[in-house]
Write a structure and sequence with these properties.
The complex is a heterodimer of chains A (314) and B (310). Chain A is α/β, with parallel strands linked by helices and 314 residues long. Chain A folds into 2 domains: 7-172, Rossmann fold (3-Layer(aba) Sandwich); 185-312, Rossmann fold. Chain A contains 13 helices and 14 strands. In chain A, helix 4 packs parallel to helix 6 (90-98), helix 9 (201-214) packs across helix 13 (299-313) and helix 10 crosses helix 11 (257-268). Chain A is globular and about 60 Å long. Chain B is an alpha/beta fold. Chain B has one domain: 3-Layer(aba) Sandwich (Rossmann fold). Chain B contains 11 helices and 5 strands. A 5-stranded parallel β-sheet of chain B has the order 1-2-3-5-4, sandwiched between helices. In chain B, helix 4 (72-82) runs parallel beside helix 5 and helix 6 (156-169) runs parallel beside helix 7 (188-199). The longest helix of chain B has 25 residues, at 36-60. Classes of the chains: A alpha/beta (314), B alpha/beta (310). Chains A and B meet through helix 4 and helix 6 of A and helix 6 and helix 7 of B. Bound molecules: thiamine diphosphate and magnesium ion. Magnesium ion binds at residues 181-183, 212, 214-215 of chain B.
Amino acid sequence: MGDTQVFEATRDAYGRALVELGALRDDLVVLDADLSGSTRTKKFADQYPDRFFNAGIAEQNMMNMAAGLALAGKVAFASTFAIFATGRAWEQVRNTIAYPRLPVKIIATHAGLTVGADGASHQALEDIAVMRAIPGMHVIVPADGAEAEAAIKASLDIEGPVYIRLGRAKVPTITDGEFVPGRGSTLANGDDVAIVACGIMVARALEAADRMRERGINCRVINMSAVKPLDEDLLLRAARSCEAVVTAEEHNVIGGLGSAVAEFLGANCPVPVLPVAVKDRFGQSGDPDALLEYYGLMPNDIEAACVRAMQMRG
Amino acid sequence: MKISLRDYRDSREVMGSAGVENPPGFRMRISPSLTADRQKTLQDHATRLRCDVINALAEAGSGHPGGSLSCADIVATLFFDVMELDPENARWPDRDRFILAKGHAAPLLYAALAGRGFFSRDELGTLRKLSSRLQGHPDMRKTPGVEASTGSLGQGLSIAVGLALGGQLDGAAWGVYALLGDGELQEGQVWEAAMAAAHYGLDNLVAIVDNNGLQIDGPIAEVMAPEPLADKWRAFGWNVFEIDGHDIWAIHGALVEAQGATGPAVLIARTVKGKGVSFMEGECDWHGKAPSQEECHVALEDLIGGEARG
Ligand SMILES: Cc1ncc(C[n+]2csc(CCOP(=O)(O)OP(=O)(O)O)c2C)c(N)n1
Ligand SMILES: [Mg+2]
């Protein structure tokens, strides 16, 4: 990671992608709930005011209006903060978007601890769990702006509902900006431990792998942005060759990527699966970096988990 | 008693030539006014729907009779006169859309769809059974003619608002009709949707409140009074029509006025829960249980007297 490193928040990539897509598809509509500046849908709203609908501070109504627009033949992108998209309106999403398999793309920003100073009320740490539990729902957690843009574009080709989890903070661009639904990618090779990460934790996993390599341990790093459907082939191959897995996510330890990986491997290739995640606690106000350190989401936390995983493997 | 699509269209053309013209720049279709003959036919349809509901529920052994019977006259007027539909092509793009916000009245919707020929009336006997296309609550992926999956109260009007926005965006002539329960109005989301509909000036949206005064735990006035209804809707920027929800003339007349109104319109239709079946009328207990075979017999007797059932 030299000094030419590019940084971009995934929500900024979203704003950019929407404007581009708006020009290509006139059946694309966008909804927001009074957060269009923060979610970056405002860029689309400025460009295509006729196809932008502000629901006001009414997230449940927004989700169902999106469903109605989808019924009228539109592809609807609905955005607000992750906590409200998946918390306040979960049942609307479950019953009125996912159950009838409507093409509504829920693009939620401000997920995780990196919301920062707004504190626990605004830091969604359960959203992957509750979205993942809905049948047929795609759950995508891009690692950087480039991948976010690709995922947003790819979501148009996914029939039915999609949840894309974006962040507030700027993150280093580390992927080549490709996304295929249901596919993860291997960013570093190694056969000692496989680190399976998503979102902002992918860059941290790469950092951990660099340091482990200095200690003579080779980590495979997998960007599992496709949390659901999971890239099972990639996972199976990694588990077979490494025989120990560490997962890393900016989410509660219950129900997220770590759970998804453990559920799959437990049934198909039982190896130790050690999660690096928030340990079933709420967040709090603070600087994003300080929060990540406080809640144990640093590269050295991943390193420690890798070491333990190798010991467990024996 | 079943009217074919062709008859239906023919009759409409004749009536249409009487000359109800859409006002300039207005998009929602306006229905021709009712004749005495049509009124009688609609009344027969409503009775048929009620019988179908009773039979289907008795066969299923569970379901919601009270709130299905209370809105049968409204649904008959919509499905057999006001709304333009094509049973042979359920997804005909120009069709009017009906959203059953009070999804527990599914048996009535199914009876109306069968009556219009979307599927056979025999299929009503599969209601609520394993692998049936007729789920306990409407499933748009399973049942031809069902526009939206509903059952969770409070969401239907929001769906209708989204649909109407889509129609507005496309300059479409079709309208959106949403049928809500009066207890359902206790859901806060209904008022989010009401606000949005007025905000977006949805001329192509008509809501109908089945104001039967009852919910599950008792009268709405005791459980959580949503009154005064008309004032509330007016305050939210809607055109309000207060009508007798069992008077086909009144229902039809209000629907036509609602079609022509600027901005969204709501019919507050005063109804009797369980209407038409003596022992169900005004009885909370009959919200969500099926009649036994014996009770089914009495109910059909109430509805069609000596005529053969089925
Ligand atoms: C969100 C939600 N909460 C509760 C229920 C259970 N429920 C089904 S019907 C009903 C009462 C509905 O009363 P009302 O809207 O007045 O309907 P009607 O009297 O026309 O049957 C309730 C509480 C539900 N379907 N959805
Ligand atoms: Mg009621």
